[in-house]
Specification:
By secondary structure, the chain is α+β, with helices and mostly antiparallel strands. It is built from 25 helices and 23 strands.
């Protein structure tokens, strides 16, 4: 384990250290301490050789390990600020120390802040914010006690250091115990970013020389931040205003807003950082967008006129920033040893069985490489040999195929009406299938508990195969945050806003969980197990309660920046010119195919039962009822216009159509309308013949595709995945 005093010097760092120490004196001693540390000399020997105390050696080693050459500069006690910004000390405490330290000690943080550790200890005591303190209501030391359990920062305005205000309220969101908290790296990054950006805004706002007349009254500043509208914007919540400056005592506040006066020992910018750290602790997903917006506003204010007051107000809507693009790492512990191994598995999977000679021909690998790779895969149990077969002259060829029970995965599809769970082996065989009917709105916690029970029962039903279970794939309707593993209020899922589904399921089952949009999961399933398993590029059209699409491009599934690629309804709205007066796309009823078919059939005069209406229309269409056929064709024509836009956008020559809205008996109606449109309307129709095929996975496409996503993440030959031969041995050890 690396200690805070461990030091490694590169050649460049050694040169810089030598140049810095020229001239001797105290610099030479400190440089000698660092060189001894890099050479592995003990603290005692180094102290004896350089003529200093052991604590001195330890202190300078720690300073260099944390701050480099800057840490070796002299920091006299007389240079410490006469007054501690207590909020800054608390914000730094909540943000935490850099690794390998887990919690700040009083001396380490005091040295970092340039204050005495005795003063820091008193701050911790007043704020009850020492490292390791139990989480609970957080009390800001203000005139008029201000207790913050799960605060949300609603507004900030300032005309300098001593004239400012913060607006905050307790969150009205229910506590989500499974929410993944912000990690230490994020907390430290946001603390540093907000400290710098708010300090810039503060300096710009407090330039009195550039501001004519007297500083603005509080009433002017509150008007800037729309404080008078807060009680209406956030109904049912007590809004608190924390104020700095002499004018704060007499300024009027709107009804329903509680006034608090800040202590002179806490700066407004640092107090914002404290509230930000508390938000990140309890509701990180919701806090990120607001804190990014605040930091951006502060940075932009740096370009404003000198003396211009700073103001920011939290938007009512859930404004979100795009998440950082990340490759899926949920199953890295199983990642295969090399790209070539995955290439061999892919070739065998698509063909069913191949000899070593055929593998070499299809992959372009040398016979020697194929022999080595297949030997490893046979040893680990991923492949098995079939009976030898003659192929002309020479030795008989031995076909190789995947061993079905070498691995399995659970696939889960969340639909507003039914939750489907399947357990699939490596060759795509569904070994177990279960469903949970949802007759009305269901709490996410209840659904997760029932799904966990279904998963455990499915695992028990497959016996020894369960020992090779890789993980769980979840297909859910968007919008969702793939990187955070969170559902973001999907349509028809009442009470499912910001549900950390991946964390909850992983905690319940003790397995890695991969979350995908339902259409994306179905796309992966068709590529891995279905009608598009040998296709390079294709688009998938998933029709169920809603309409979604996915795409497989350049050898891999296309997810987009946030995992929400393929919003088919928007493409259809633009393709059919169903727009609002301001140009925004309207809701297209046909992009809810099941309900749209039922409504059209009823309008045509078809009598339908109160339950199972869609199935009744499909049965009537299969029997030749012209009213039912006309209803399905009406919906299919609108869906086909969206498919044209999708074909033009992706330039694909294969479209797979599937989902619960397209049962086999009426699939021909959909395929005919879509195939006609995508080959008659696109601009590139002369050079691109588009095939439209029916999904072989049908109504189970999303659930099976979610399981296939686990296999795809592990086995698909992609150059950007990490390598590691542990994957093969891990599966073999459990086979």
């Amino acid at each position: 384990m690396r200690r805070p005093t461990d030091i490694t010097l590169t050649a460049r760092q050694l040169t810089e250290l030598t140049a810095w120490a020229k001239g001797g004196g105290e610099r030479a001693v400190r440089a000698g301490i660092v060189r001894d540390a890099a050479a592995g000399v003990s603290v005692g020997i180094s102290a004896h050789r350089l003529g200093v105390s052991r604590p001195t050696v330890t202190a300078w080693r720690q300073r260099y390990a944390r701050g480099g050459l800057a840490g070796l500069e002299h920091q006299p006690r007389s240079g410490r600020p006469p007054r501690i910004d207590e909020a800054d000390a608390v914000a730094a405490t909540l943000a935490g120390p850099p690794p390998p330290l887990r919690d700040w000690s009083a001396r380490a943080l005091a040295e970092f802040l340039g204050v005495s550790h005795t003063s820091l200890g008193k701050v911790w005591q007043r704020w009850a914010a020492h490292p390791g303190a139990p989480e609970g209501p957080f009390h800001l030391p203000a005139l008029g006690p201000l207790s913050c359990h799960r605060p949300e920062l609603l507004g900030v305005w300032a005309a300098g250091q001593d004239t400012a205000g913060l607006v905050l309220a307790e969150s009205d969101r229910p506590e989500r115990l499974g929410t993944v908290p912000a990690d230490g790296a994020e907390r430290r990054r946001r603390y540093a970013d907000m400290t710098v950006s708010l300090r810039q805004a503060q300096l710009r706002a407090e330039d009195d020389a550039a501001r004519p007349g007297t500083p603005p009254e509080l009433a002017e500043l509150t008007d800037r931040t729309e404080l008078t509208e807060l009680t209406g914007t956030f109904p049912g919540r007590t809004v608190h205003v924390l104020l700095w400056g002499d004018a704060a005592d007499s300024a009027p506040l709107p009804p329903g807003v509680v006034r608090h006066t800040a202590s002179a020992s806490m700066g407004w910018a640092a107090t914002v950082c404290v509230v930000a750290q508390l938000e990140l602790r309890h509701q990180p997903h919701r806090a990120r967008a607001a804190l990014d917006s605040l930091a951006q506003a502060a940075r932009l204010h740096a370009g404003a006129a000198a003396g211009e007051p700073f103001g920011w107000f939290r938007s009512e809507g859930p404004t979100r920033t795009p998440p950082t693009r990340t490759a899926h790492r949920a199953f890295d512990q199983f990642t295969l040893g090399s790209f070539n191994e995955k290439l061999v598995i892919e070739a065998i999977r698509v063909s069913g069985a191949l000899s070593r000679v055929e593998i070499a021909e299809r992959t372009g690998l040398t016979p020697q490489a194929v022999s080595r790779i297949t030997r490893n895969l046979l040893t680990t149990g991923l492949l098995v040999e079939e009976e030898r077969r003659m192929a002309g002259k020479g030795k008989p060829r031995v076909p190789l195929r995947l061993r079905p029970d070498a691995a399995c995965a659970i696939g889960l599809h969340l639909d507003p009406e039914v939750i489907t769970l399947v357990l699939v082996d490596l060759c795509g065989n569904v070994r177990d299938r279960r469903q949970l009917e949802l007759t009305g709105p269901s709490a996410p916690e209840w659904c997760v508990a029932r799904v966990a029970e279904m998963a455990r029962a499915a695992v028990e039903s497959v016996g020894a195969l369960a020992g090779n279970l890789l993980g769980v794939g979840v297909a859910a309707p968007g919008p969702l945050d793939v990187n955070a593993g969170m559902l973001l209020d999907p349509p028809l899922f009442e009470g499912w806003d910001e549900v950390p589904l991946r964390a909850w399921l992983s905690g319940e089952l003790g397995l890695p969980v991969l979350l995908e949009k339902d259409a994306t999961a179905a796309t992966v399933g068709e590529r891995w197990l279905g009608a598009a398993e040998s296709a390079g590029d294709f688009a998938y059209l998933y029709l169920g309660t809603g309409a979604g699409s996915g795409a497989f491009l350049n050898g891999d599934v296309f997810r987009g920046a946030s995992g929400n690629a393929g919003e088919f309804g928007l493409m259809t709205a633009y393709a059919t010119a169903r727009l609002a007066p301001d140009g925004a796309p309207r809701l297209v009823p046909e992009c809810a195919p099941m309900s749209a078919v039922v409504a059209a059939a009823a309008a045509n005069g078809l009598t339908l039962p109160p339950t199972g209406a869609h199935a009744a229309v499909c049965a009537a269409a299969a029997d030749g009822d012209v009213r039912a056929v006309a209803a399905i064709r009406q919906v299919a024509r609108v869906v086909a216009r969206g498919a044209v836009a999708m074909t033009e956008l992706y330039d694909v020559d294969l479209i797979v159509v599937g989902g619960p809205a397209v049962p086999p008996q009426v699939s021909g109606l959909y395929l005919t309308e879509i195939a006609t449109a995508v080959n008659r309307l696109p601009l590139a129709r002369r050079v691109r013949q588009v095939r439209v095929v029916y999904s072989t996975l049908s109504d189970a496409a999303a659930a099976v595709g979610a399981a296939a996503g686990v296999f795809h993440t592990m086995f698909a030959p992609r150059l950007h995945t990490r390598s590691g031969r542990d994957a093969v041995s891990s599966i073999a050890g459990r086979a």
